[in-house]
Amino acid sequence: MDFSAINPILLLASLMVAATPILLAAVGELVVERAGVLNLGVEGMMITGAVCGFIVAVGTNSPWLGFIGAAVGGALLSLLFGFLTQFLLSNQVATGLALTLFGLGLSALMGQGYIGIKAPSFPDWNIPLLGDIPVIGPIVFQHDPMVYVGLLIVAGTWAFLKYARAGLILRAVGENHEAAHALGYHVVRVRMLAIMFGGACAGLGGAYLSLVRVPQWTEGMTAGAGWIALAIVVFASWRPWRLLLGAYLFGGVTVLQLNLQAAGFAIPVEYLSMSPYLATIAVLVIMRTGRAPGSLGQSFHASR
Amino acid sequence: MTDPLLRLSGLTKAYPGVVANKDVSFDIMGGEIHALLGENGAGKSTLVKTIYGLVKPDSGQMSLHGIPFQPAEPRAARAAGVAMVFQHFSLFDAMTVAENIALGMEKPPPLRDIAARVRNVSEQYGLPLDPDRTVGGLSAGERQRVEIIRCLLQDPKLLIMDEPTSVLTPQEVAILFETLRKLRAEGTAILYISHKLEEIRALCDNATVLRLGEVVGTCDPRNTSARDMAELMVGSVLHVPQKAARPVGEIIVRLDALNAPAPHQFGTALRDISLEVRKGEVLGIGGVAGNGQDELVAALSGEMRVGAAMIQYQGTPIGKLGPNARRKLGLLAAPEERMGHAAAPDMTLTENAVMTATTRQHLARKGFVHWGRARSFAEAVIRAFDVRTPGPQNTARSLSGGNLQKFVIGREIMQDPDVLVVNQPTWGVDASAAAAIRQALLDLAVNGAAVICISQDLDELMEISDRFAALNEGRLSAPRPAAGLTVEQIGLMLGGAHDMEVAHVDA
């Protein structure tokens, strides 16, 4: 056992990287749920995004185009969910679960020729000046651009929900869809847009795994990250900044346990592997969760 | 004569199986309060939704200021100066007052300006409201103020109000009327829907009566009696409940210093309520909403357990018994909120009948429901109380509010109770159905049952009760004989001021 092998600066630095895929997927789901839709298909949209992003990135040799492809792939899959739940009024829970299963199968099919290939590299930014600050520089300012894109999306979502008129309408639709309809807002249109945003964000999160974190394609590589993203949305009481906290907590425990494993810590590996999930669930239970959006998970039809 | 503000001509709207509006034509002038009258299901809601752009008419035209007016959606109606206060509030509980108001406006200014304007308008019209409060914690009257201010901030030419007073206390009604008169003086037209004919007589300049989707008459409510208007609505002679003289029997329910803490954050604690109810009498309990009505019903029905001796049924302590045990004894209750409390919205009427009637009607044996019997019981309720529905296989949600009310009250009355507790038995029910429900309550008493009727409708209480008591902040005043009580005396009882404290009322 050698704790000196654990470099605290590297540990904290990799925390941000480990949290990014979950953060991206969770912020998308947060918007979807604030609009009153429960999409349990995050895992399926993530892995579809992972494979779409990987295929596009390998094909064009551009990670940026890969991420765009991942967002489009995730959004397209979410459109299927939106069509089924918003127009055909299917049950959101069942449809979301089916979407996850479908996404896992579809991605395995699409990714068959891509196993064992390496993704084009996505270099870290070394932000001038800020990146040179001792300790804080390497922890916060020397990552790949998607880490910052993720943070921007969280900040943007927060500002959108708090200050924008459209954000107010989105919250209204999620809070009481009957009343929103009576006031003349287009419930289904708002929800479809939210669902597509959620799909695109989940796709980005998946592609972050296949293009940056791993970076190659393996079947089922999201390994439950989508479910953690769903849980973090609840733990965060549907608020963006608490979401960030939750994602970093999960990411932090993940990298810590990986480091402990590498250091040969005298605890069976299985316990260490489960620790991020246990920690997140424990926090989820301990922290008082806020009130869920009033119309969450209910189908809306104008005549009812 | 000036041109009308809004002219409706030949509006027709049919839904599958029912014509909601048939060739409806009338005019609304600027600066008048125009009443729209009709029974439940006469097509009033469809008509106002058409004006507000929520429903597209099959045929017919509207014109506003002489210009053709065909709002495709509420946004267009609002832009043209039509605003609407809904019967079921269209508010968002988790949001603040200011956010709720912003959502109802076309081009809202920043939230900070809204807060300032809300304060302005609420002072101008005497509607106190704090823009930063969360709507979920407001009372019914305050919630309605949110809706009204939301409308007023848009400077409407026509304000539509769908049953605005059904959830308000008399004091709140007075404030509302003051506001509406002020608006009328400023030239705003108001289309006012209500079942409370006395209110319409006091407030409105003109009335149009709908029956089965058609205009059947107009009248000047200021010099038409409530009874005449009701008969115009119903199309037949109105039956007025008859209070038959009856002997009052022995004490059947006794509340002995009933104390109970508030069941939830917004609830009211019950304080030291003592009461005796005798067989064959109707006890009316009045009071401003939120003064412990729900809690008292919950304590009586068994939904909320209290100390055993606090409630005695024929001398037996029953405070710790649950609802089914009390039903078995003969004490039944019908709570106020019909959708979700008295009835499960997505279950059929038969299933809803099973839920409270199993014990007394023997609808289950050895844990298995006897569906045939349940169905015939539900059918009997539907027949006896004229519930308008294709049959007991329909869900509770598919019934209009008034029809469902008839069903949930009828379900308890048909179980032949010895004591029946009802809360707001005729809320949202039209005049003829309300008369039928009141008659059924009186008939129960004639047959020797005791009826405890909690209501905010004082006319109703005066019509049926033998004795009257008032709830105020969880305390019950001493019951008095209802005959001969004056409005002033009742007002004082409701305000919690007893005979001695008259001088302090305004202090």
Give the topology, please.
The complex is a heterodimer of chains A (304) and B (507).
Chain A: H1 8-34, H2 42-60, H3 63-87, H4 92-110, H5 136-140, H6 145-163, H7 165-175, H8 177-182, H9 187-213, H10 225-235, H11 240-262, H12 269-286
Helix pairs in contact in A: 1-6, 1-9, 1-10, 1-11, 2-3, 2-4, 2-9, 2-10, 3-4, 3-9, 6-7, 6-11, 10-11, 10-12, 11-12
Chain B: E1 6-15, E2 18-28, E3 33-37, H1 44-51, E4 59-64, E5 67-68, H2 74-79, E6 82-85, H3 97-103, H4 111-124, H5 140-152, E7 158-162, H6 170-185, E8 189-193, H7 197-203, E9 206-211, E10 214-219, H8 226-234, E11 251-260, E12 270-278, E13 282-286, H9 293-301, E14 311-313, E15 316-317, H10 323-329, E16 331-334, H11 349-361, E17 364-365, E18 368-369, H12 371-384, H13 401-413, E19 419-423, H14 431-446, E20 450-454, H15 458-464, E21 467-472, E22 475-476, E23 480-481, H16 487-494
Helix pairs in contact in B: 3-4, 3-5, 11-12, 11-13, 12-13, 13-14
Broad shape of chain A: globular
Count of helix runs of chain A: 12
Number of domains of chain A: 1
Largest β-sheet summary of chain A = none
Give the DSSP E fraction of chain A (strand runs of 2 or more residues): under 5%
Largest sheet of chain B: 7 strands, mixed
Protein name (chain A): Nucleoside ABC transporter membrane protein
Pfam families (chain A): BPD_transp_2 (PF02653)
Main location (chain A): membrane
Organism (chain A): Yoonia sediminilitoris
